[in-house]
Predict the structure of O-acetylhomoserine aminocarboxypropyltransferase/cysteine synthase.
Amino acid sequence: MKIETKCIQSGYKPKSGEARVLPIYQSTTYKYDSAEHMGKLFDLEEDGYFYTRLANPTCGAVEEKIADLEGGVGAMLTSSGQAATLAAVMTIARAGDHIVCSNSVYGGTFNLLDVTLKKFGIDVTFVDPDAEAAEIGKAFKDNTKALLGETIANPALTVLDIEKFAKLAHSHGVPLIVDNTFATPVLCRPIEFGADIVIHSTSKYLDGHAVALGGVVVDSGNFDWAASGKFPEFTVPDESYHGVVYTEKFGRAAFIVKARAQLMRDMGFAPAPMNAFLLNLGTETLHLRMPRHSENALKVAEFLENDDRIAWVNYPGLASSKYKPLVDKYLPNGASGVVSFGIKGGREAAGRMLDAMELAAIVTHVADARTCALHPASTTHRQMTDEQLEECGVGADLIRLSVGIENAEDIIEDIKQALDKAVK
Ligand SMILES: *Cc1c(COP(=O)(O)O)cnc(C)c1O
């Protein structure tokens, strides 16, 4: 099946007489006729449900759909995108290990690795994703267990050379984890380019309507944990699960089963069935929304580039972007919906422009159906001076626009009238 069909048909498969639409199994627990049957589930001897922290039929159907969309062997939904990143890293690495990560990743990912996971003994080295492979290779150590990058980084909008990153990771015997939140599997499927694990904040385009926080971890099934020799947790008996050896018992699904059996069990970042239901509705129209987000964003970026009140525009889909060759290779059907730009007149002009926007709402969220805008210098980063902002790559003049799926001319009209008011 093609991606459009998978968006609609994958996952939930009702039997004769069952609900046509994925039901919400609003139940923490499941009933069994014999203790022995339930015992088999606890021993991972049989598939089934016993407690919603570990698995739920509504969540399970959505996991199957997203695994199918990304081309993986299995997936695990989490309560948020942050939890998905945490689950992916902690299934692979433990205290004493090290991760190599692109330095332009989402701020939450950066903090998780740079601050919180360091407290748990997992170290990180950040690398410039645009550097030569040999240069990035210098960051790898004997205890490095994974490489991490973002297809289109939020909010830097750098585009990842996925094949370069995959080759680097594999030549060091470790998996590549790709955060595919901004691209979604409709615009790019990182597994086709060598990624081993794909993660998402589903709170963004996958849901697409800004109604449900969530995350997902997808396992390609392609990484050979045993052959690498670096991952004893996958190849020696897990005493917390009656001595199961994940690679032997679960083969290509070793990673995603271990993620659920150990981390979901012990950390409990489970999604609500209601949120999984809403996420499923969002995924049904993903293949219609992503091309429109991308088309609209390109039109907005081109308009901004031709307006002399604008100092600079960053959108990887622009012909003038240094990432255009990577977009042509990895994102041929569109570079997604987020555009950032600088307005002449700095912090004050940017603030005035945001206040003057009527269609675009001021929100910290990105990546839903409605156009929205953020001026970090007067909101999320307001405690920083212009100099400090410059240092962290978020200039005082920077406005981030998440271009929605309204009519592009209406969005551009709104930008025009706001610019007229902001720049005299
Ligand atoms: C928002 C976001 C996250 C974090 O996801 P939450 O659902 O907010 O926890 C992770 N990665 C990227 C790229 C994001 O945009």
Observations:
- The pocket of pyridoxal-5'-phosphate is lined by residues 80-82, 106, 108-109, 150, 154, 179, 181, 201, 203-204, 213, 215 (CB under 6 Å).
- DSSP finds 18 helices and twelve strands in the chain.
- The mean pLDDT is 95.
